[in-house]
Queue: 2 jobs
Job 1
Amino acid sequence: MYKKIIIPLILISGVYADDDRWGNRNDVAPVKNAIYIKECGSCHFAYQPGLLPQRSWTKMMGNLENHFDSDASLDDATTKYLANYLKANSAEKGIEYKRSRKILQSIRPNEVPLRITQTRYFINKHDEIPKKMIIQKEVGSLANCTACHTTANKGNYSERAIKIPNYRAWKDD
Amino acid sequence: MKKYTLAILLCGVIANAGNFSPSMQGYIAALKSEAKQADSSFVDFNAKRGEKIFTTKHIGKSGDSISCTSCHGSNLTKNGQNPTTNKIIKPLGPSVNKSRLTDIKEVQKWLRRNFKDVYNREGTALEKGDVLYYIQSK
């Protein structure tokens, strides 16, 4: 009697848990820290700390004067505060989140990527997108998450919520 | 007649400095004394000179020829856009964006970073004051 109910439930939950199409779970822990959003989000999307491992954030925060060809230096107190925030919320701290886990698994132990876009998981997920969709002015580059991932600021990168400007819904197949 | 002109000029100078928010007055005064120290003939900052600094292109940190307008646009009452990340930058002109030039720490942070991005060095007190007068006039 119970088996009849429980087995289908287990099956269904398995499908829900890993299926992008349902898209209602967070893929990565969302950003709630107002200082992070202000300081890092004024020039670019406030990437969730769970999108890179701790060693990447530590390396990045050690050289904000040379931050992707730009000076992003902060006063010492703010730098330290944000370095701690990133460390406490890095991918290793959120392996219950699918994207954090998969990004982490795709990086070799000796690698310290500074760009999320250069992690193997990210590349595999984006390598079929035609260049014209990326370089168009509404997007610009793959670093501009929110241009296509309409729920990126909630930590949700589900396929269902992708809308590439000027193109029909993206199907990953 | 001469006295009269001088009085008007002086009023103009005071009024200009007075446009800055109370929290910025101290910073402007500090920049003035630094500029005076560097050059004893210094009288006041100048928005016109600031505009030139703001709009002149220079090989910046990235190796590209850029100016402040590359991100902020040439109309400071309108949004700008970071050309690398596509992020919208709210207008710099205090006439349309009241939060601009009110927080000294913010102003110092962005002057330091952005002079380095465009000119590959920090600005002098004279240059920073001139640019602030220019932004304040918008």
Note: The first strand of chain B starts at residue 58 and ends at 59.
Job 2
Amino acid sequence: MSAADQRRREERFEQFLGALLRVGVILAASVVLLGGVLYLARHGGEPPEGKVFRGEPADLRDPAAIVQAAAGLDGRDVIQLGLLLLIATPVARVGCSVVGFLRERDPTYVVLTLIVLSVLLYTLIFR
Amino acid sequence: MENVTEFTLLVGLGSVGAGFLGALTGLGGGVVLVPLLVLAFGVDIRYAMGASLVSVIATSSAAAAAYVKEGFTNIRIGMFLEVATTFGAVAGAFVALYVGGSAIAAVFGSVLLASAYLSLRRRRESGPAGGPDPVAARLRLDGVFPTPAGPQAYHVRRVPLGFGLMFVAGVLSGLLGIGSGAFKVLAMDQAMRIPFKVSTTTSNFMIGVTAAASAGIYLARGYIDPGLAMPVMLGVSLGSVAGARLLPHTRPRVLRVVFAAVIVVLGVEMLYRGLTGKM
């Protein structure tokens, strides 16, 4: 493969990463907006909650529980699903980068991106 | 405030303003957003950090998509330095779990004052610093960026120093719930002598990953409140898109002075509250 081919391939891959980020953000923002409408429709007239820190309940903290809870279409649960999608967007980008560097046969960067990916996955499932 | 709808609208409006200013000045929305939520809306600083951090992911990812297209972003530099920022972010988020709100507010105030100083200081033109860096060559960090006169090559210097500074940038991001883009740009532009436009776009590319590392921990510890994060995330995104559109038509010097004045006031107030334990 010539250097020019290699560069074109890298460029195509970079464009793909850009598109992935764009799609992730638009999807997440749409879900958050939908959740916001549901939330305000049901709770909009209530007095604002206290601003003292209590920590969110368990079903708004754990990725698996958030996905499950959102199926109930309660506004707060749907918003949290959108936020989870948002947090997952850069993680997906790093995951795709691992594949990209594998295809470029670049072992150093495969290892570097795998390290970053492990840290990100660890924090998402961390208790 | 009467009810949840009113609170949501006011927070959303404030977030549009924070995102707008953040995009115009290049400092990002987080640095002004957290103090705004804490000082004007009386929100607990931990909820403010959670909401700010998710909005940082949104704005940086959206902007990164556009920048990658233009060809300034150096993906290798970004991926390499993300190792430092993600470990830093995890360390910062753990520290945030164990120190009180007052300590965080005091650090936040100091960072605001430092940001004001950095944004006003005249940027030193980066000349060559030492010879080529063997680490940069080994990691193939050197790159090419588009100029009106055609593609121009650049070399990356002082990689270990830059890597260390990026760890600090990550710690600040996880500890304060901000993107710490200004600090990342400083490390790349001044320490590693990467061209300014490459530094800013690559910094932006890295912010989402850095923020995602601490956001996972914030989420697990219940710092991310959907009722607050919803208007903040949507507002900041809207504001930063508008800011980015307007950017080519503004006078950056005037803006910087105005923004610096705002963050000095916020910084002093945060520092005062932190030091007197009023958080």
Note: Chain B touches chain A through 64 residues (CB under 8 Å).
